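Box 4.2: Ligand-aware structure prediction
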Amino acid sequence: MSYYVTFHSSMKKLIQLIVYFQLSLICFAQLKVTNLLCENLSNPVAIDVTQPRFSWQLVSDKRNLMQTAYEISIGNNSSWEKNKKIIWNSGKINSDSSVHVIYKGPSLQSGARYFWQVRVWDNYGKSASSEPATFQIALLNVADWKANWIEPGFTEDSINRPTPLFRKEFKASKKIQSATAYITAHGMYEGYINGKRIGDFYLTPGWTSYNKRLQYQTFDVTDLLNQGGNTIAMALGSGWYRGYLAWSGNKNSWGKDIALLFQLDITYADGSRESIVSDNSWKTSTGSITYSEIYNGEIIDARKQKTGWRNPGYDDGNWSRVKVKDYNKSNLVATQNEPVKKHETFAPVKIITTPNGENVIDFGQNLVGWVMIKVKGNAGDTITISHAEVLDKYGNFYTENLRAARAQAKYILRGEGEEFFEPHFTFFGFRYIKVEGWPGEIKPENFTAVALYSDMQPTGNFSCSNSLVNQLQHNIQWGQKGNFLDVPTDCPQRDERLGWTGDAQVFSRTASFNMNVNNFFAKWLKDVAADQQVDGSVPFVIPNVLGPRAGGATGWADVCTIIPWNVYLAYGDKRILEQQYNSMEAWVEYMRSKSKDDLWNTGFHFGDWLFYRPFDDNDGRSAVTDKYLIAQCFYAYSTQLLINAANALGRKNDAATYSALLQKIKGAFLKEYVTANGRLVSGTQTAYVLALNFDMLPESQRAETAQRLADNVKSYGNHLTTGFLGTPYLCHVLTRFGYDSIAYKLLLQKTYPSWLYPVKMGATTIWERWDGIKPDSSFETPTMNSFNHYSYGAIGDWMYRVVAGIDTYADAPGYKHVKIQPHLSDSLTYANADLKTYYGTVSSHWKRDKGNLYLDIEIPVNTKATIYIPAVATERVTESNTSLASAGIKVSEKENNYVIVEVGSGKYHFVSTIE
Ligand code: BGC
């Protein structure tokens, strides 16, 4: 009996297990459609494009899975799921497109919310439908704005310009079904409804070329509203609009008056609508923020707080009326990129008393944001928090490199129990703070640093067996976090923090690996085009606060061709090429107009900014590259990218015209800068790198020139000497011409100048200079010594694309056709990179051990890949423990030390013999 029972229950378990196993197989292998994006965003609440684009991801464990067809349905009814009121159905389209598929239905309505769903079919005969997703159209027409611009009615203190507050009470008499707030400002704004913060965005409305494009944000505020009494409370800061920017006391870049534009569109349950807008019924006053400037910081006097002003019932009888202004609204645009949000928080890692007796807190990471404090004290106690990136060689607090930026938060206590402070309309670049005036003992639990940056999706990871390189990758990512604050800035701490075009282009390709920067750059590039001069010259900084003549520098202005192309490669986003095409062409035409006989050798240029130059340069080791040689190289490169864009957009005539021009540009380069024996007039790494990377030389001269580059690197003891313009391509060129081992030596070089030197010196971000802190721990000149400048982080691109080997083909961009080609080095035992693309995750993980290579690859569904497997012979490669042939993997050829295979989606485990 007992035997029978045991047998019976075991059988039952076995059957259960088999059923479970089969079921899980079915579930696992099942086709799924997820990650629905509209205009590259998940369920966006405000897009102002009339033909939005849709992307989705197919998920399946099956190999070689491709989408064969899709069908998109769009509905505009909130009860869509129930009665599926379809406004557009694409029909079943036989296509493998699953990214940036364009809406082709009837006109979409301002302010309306839509549902969408996609059904896909695959090459295994399966089909699946996604869950519904939503998108909401912003205000498409100026006439949709019922709100008026309002300004403080009182006379502002024109020196300190304390933050004006605005408030409005209103009654919602009926049950509210939904409510959307549209808000922007001349300045920065922060808003509350019934005491609760509107959204979790900071530094809104962000930074654009305000007179041409001013972003507004859209918030679903249904949950903040009451049926009955409601209060809207808004605070404004000077921000970029009218605060100090650039140098020499420059302020009021877009105007001297601060203003608010606010519109709340309410839909009641009975279907009726009401709008509460900024108008002459609002009241205004000042409050606790008595000073606020981006560079200098903020002063909050809690004694001046207007208690209860954010809530209904507050008596605003003595507040002023507002001034209503009739500003043009045609510059209003919906926010396209991810807004700035709070991200990582940091507790103090050390509390220090410096030799100078300063009370300093170390947060362990150079970051951008601010410190939140909790404090108890007496009314009038004044706490000053100063910010610094580094301590000097004696361990004292060092702020000289912030130049004129005061970078301080000052808090004056109200003296009523525990008080909480954080700034509102400023930000700081810091790792250390100095605390003055703290009542009582400084305890770590009272301080939390928080990082603020644009809320881009993290997409990339890179790690390898060298911990210094891993720290370098960390520093690159933190350089990006710190400087992608609505616009790409050069640095986040000193009196600069501007959208320097050169820095942005240099770093753009690396940035596209670490995070999804598609919309971030798409938005900024619109400002690039908007601020471009009529003659095609591109300003040094965007938004342009340096005046119309500050522009046209080689390698800086080329931002307008380089970033659109990099974004196109990374995301397959053709619209960015369409959007920027005129800007790209205008810049090429500008260079053409300044050239004589196709040689561009006029105008001001920064050149290979911050290249290597030793202090006591007796035998001439400084790596000076002729600026006009550089200009001719970038002239060619921008023309090449314009040709690429023309080809991608099917503009054949333009492609032909500019191809002819490109030949002449290269011809003029050879005539002017290359000797008969193939020497460049500047024998620097940057000169060789640019000439080779942009194909300036005839095929026959390239190998020899690459040899000269390799020799040059060796002559500096395997050190780089490049500045901003040569650095991004240095290792790529070495790799391309067979000098991987030298490229690795540069990557792993620990002494100055090199990428790892700052790491060895304790850097947690990328420095502006190769030797911001010198080997003797003294600093470079304080006038130019930022410790958070991402440009030299451009090596990240080589780490992803060459060390791990993840790349995309330009004729199938956005990783529709993935290229995997790891480049091994004896100095690394493993390297891993993962990249979230619109199709899914691409991974390349390699590990070498005892003459074998273990290569784990992941290729997303609906893409294909060409994989270069390092191996001595095809027969010495297995996949999941079987030969390539029996794994059904197509071997296309053998090239040098690689076996090249063509695969579809799936996870692959290759083992090969490499020695
Ligand atoms: C910035 C740079 C910028 C440069 C122009 C500097 O002040 O910080 O990164 O590109 O000026 O050369």
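In the box above, the bound molecule is beta-D-glucopyranose. The chain is about 25% helix and 30% strand.
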